[in-house]
Amino acid sequence: MSNCGPRPKRPMSAFLMWMSSNGRKHIKAKHPEISVQDVSVKGGEMWRAMVDEDKVVWQEAARTAMDEYKEKLEQWNTLQEQSKVCLSPTYAHNYEAQLSSRFSKTNQKSTLFVYDCKDETMAPICRKCFSKIKCFH
């Protein structure tokens, strides 16, 4: 499991946005005894019968929500790729490269490396954020 949080959820379609905001309420007001399945069927019939000009509002909202979702998903995928090469701060001392004897008297810290299983190499990482990408620490 990665530490970049749960995958973003897909947004609702225009039809589902309409159903959740006022379609379901409108149907239940007219037919209070109707079942959940029949509410969905009736909502589908009403949506198909609706004029395109009335649908535009919901379609635009759905398009905006989908654009936001795609941005969040792209960011999440980037974090997911970066976190495949991760390291727990608890075990950082196990991955420290030893300084050679000629640098033993300096204040230089040893470099922290992590094994990257994608290209099977050892890569240096940041000691503060444990990120393989360049950071400002």
Automatic annotation (TrEMBL):
SMART domains: HMG (SM00398)
GO molecular function: DNA binding
Start and end residues of each HMG box domain: 8-77
Feature: DNA-binding region: 8-77
Keyword DNA-binding: yes
Keywords: DNA-binding, Nucleus
One Pfam family per UniProt: HMG_box
InterPro entries, alphabetized: HMG_box_dom, HMG_box_dom_sf, HMGB
Gene Ontology, cellular component aspect: nucleus
GO terms, biological process: regulation of transcription by RNA polymerase II
PANTHER family membership: HIGH MOBILITY GROUP PROTEIN D-RELATED, HIGH MOBILITY GROUP PROTEIN DSP1
Name of this chain's protein: FACT complex subunit SSRP1-like
Source species: Drosophila mauritiana
Gene, per the UniProt record: LOC117144329
